[in-house]
Amino acid sequence: MRYKVLTVDDSKTVRIIVRKAFKPYDCDIIEAGNGVEGLAVAGKELPALILLDVTMPVMDGVEMLTKLKSDPALKGI
To answer: 26: burial class by Cβ within 10 Å (0-12, 13-18, 19+)?
Structure first.
């Protein structure tokens, strides 16, 4: 089974670094550029792991984490 890893960061460079770091592992990397996008992707893809930046425009990582933990379908991630 391939794990899904969601990386949420406004920096494309950081997302590329994460993608390269996980390349040797049997997982699919999914990306989002901000918290709003990240929540939508998390709800659709149900990743096993979320790597979340704290400082982002639109919705920061702390707010996204709060929303993740308040959603019964996503709080276990």
So the answer is: exposed
Number of H helices, E strands in the chain: 3, 3
**What's the pTM value of the predicted model, to 2 decimals?**
0.91
Give the span between the Cα atoms of 67 and 60, in whole angstroms.
11
The beta strand positions in 1-77, using DSSP E, are 3-8, 27-32, 49-52
Q: What is the dihedral of CA 10, 16, 18, 20, to 10 degrees?
A: 180
- One digit per residue, the tens of pLDDT, for the chain of length 77 reads 789 999 999 999 999 999 999 999 989 999 999 999 999 999 999 999 999 999 998 899 999 999 999 999 999 99
The two structure tokens encoding residue 40: 């939508």
Query: Could you give the 3-state DSSP secondary structure of residue 6?
Result: strand
